[in-house]
Design a protein that fits this description.
Distance between the termini: 74 Å
Strand content: over 45%
CATH architecture of the largest domain: Sandwich
CATH class of the largest domain: Mainly Beta
Strand order of the largest sheet: 7-6-3-4-9
Shape: globular
């Protein structure tokens, strides 16, 4: 009897050692409906709680990287929910549009694409409290050129006149907040203007780079995440 009990304990121990741990859910998305050139409604699945995501749209084949910032999403309790996003003017008329979700607080991201044609898979209720659409004229920027490990050129949009900004950069593949100050800008007339700077030597081999404009008077921030590779 003792031998049988010992065998049972050994088998139980082996089972615990060989049973794989449950994998952490990965954020994902699926397209629920589209109104051509106006909106897309997306089901967001397994999103982490209490994080802020940039919502980007871009041209087909880009995976949404360096896309137009169309919204910021506050996940609150996280999990699975749906939200509606407006298609930016510069992508109206495109047959296929990429959409991307990138967390400002962790390494979590996901991307998808949709046909820019009015269609719906099924009626859904949209959670109006978990995201906020950016107001027209929200300060943002687009990348115009990257020399891998060397330099970055970009074009700002909707920057207000008379503000001072710091341009900062960090390793975009890491959750740390070790931002490096690479430029300072005094915006005279505002609007759109080019900005260029060198990639710091400690970041020249980073796969991804996060870029932030920080407004000195009030701490307002606008972000983007890029690949450290030659572009275009």
């Amino acid at each position: 009897m003792k031998k049988r009990n010992l065998l049972i304990l050994v088998l139980a121990a082996l089972f615990l050692l060989t049973t794989p741990a449950a994998a952490k859910p990965i954020a994902n998305s699926s397209i629920l409906s589209v109104v051509e050139d106006q909106t897309v409604t997306v089901r967001l699945e397994n999103f982490p709680e209490d994080e802020t995501f940039n919502v980007l749209m871009g041209f087909n084949g880009t995976l949404g990287m360096n896309g137009y910032l169309v919204s910021r999403l506050a996940t609150n309790a996280g999990g699975t929910f749906s939200a509606k996003f407006y298609i930016p003017e510069d992508l109206k008329g495109e047959d296929i549009i990429a959409i991307r979700f990138e967390s400002q607080d962790s390494n979590v991201y996901c991307y998808n694409w949709f046909y820019n044609t009015t269609a719906a898979t099924n009626p859904v209720e949209v959670d109006e409290t978990t995201y906020n659409n950016l107001k027209p004229g929200f300060p943002t920027f687009t990348i115009t050129k990257v020399v891998k490990g060397s330099s970055i050129e970009l074009m700002t949009r909707y920057f207000p006149a008379g503000d001072r900004w710091a341009v900062m950069i960090k390793d975009g593949a890491m959750a740390n907040k070790d931002w490096i100050d690479v430029a300072g800008i005094d915006v005279a007339e505002g609007g759109s203007f080019p900005v260029s700077f060198s990639i710091p030597s400690k970041l020249q081999y980073s796969e991804k780079l996060a870029i932030m404009f920080y407004r000195l008077k009030d701490g307002f921030r606008t972000y983007d995440l890029i690949l450290n590779q030659d572009y275009p």
